[in-house]
Structure prediction request, 194 residues.
Amino acid sequence: MTRPTPDFPVLTKDTAPEASHALMDAYVARMGFVPNLVGILAASPAAAKTYGQAYAFLGETEFTPAEQQALLLTISRVNGCTYCVAAHTMGARKAGLDTETIQALRDGRPVLDPKLAALVEFAAKLVEQRGQVGRDAVNDFLTAGYKPAQIMDILVAAAAKTISNYMNHMAETPLDVQFADAAWHANGASQAAQ
Prediction:
């Protein structure tokens, strides 16, 4: 297990600014613990609130929980974020994605479901090409059965993952024990997605 850099300690409610407590409480209510990433983001109430709001807005989209997790897992993999790939592997399991689909997402391989494939391919392209995806990519996404507004929803997911993925890169966020069996490394050395 890596340790966070001294500049980015993992805070608790006893050490975090009070303005970050609401986000920490929300994670305890939803997951039963405060993930290390949230403990690090808590040092900046602005970052913590922005991350929490962007993440919460995904629940207001038409994406299913499984699509949300596939989207977050894909963006995290493209960004090479070991912490978030592990966390969203667990989220994908909870959302009901099957083991083969999760492993394909972790590996960057095509998934079998054509609509889900269109979602994750578009999201990967959006991140890799910094939004400059071209008309063909947009058309492919819409032809798969998604709506134009859902492209904007993907931008919300990308914004949330930019905050968390980049923070994890800088802080070298230690993986929570709750995510340990889903550990992943950008070089492809990962455990099974079971």
Residues 148-171 form the longest helix (24 residues).
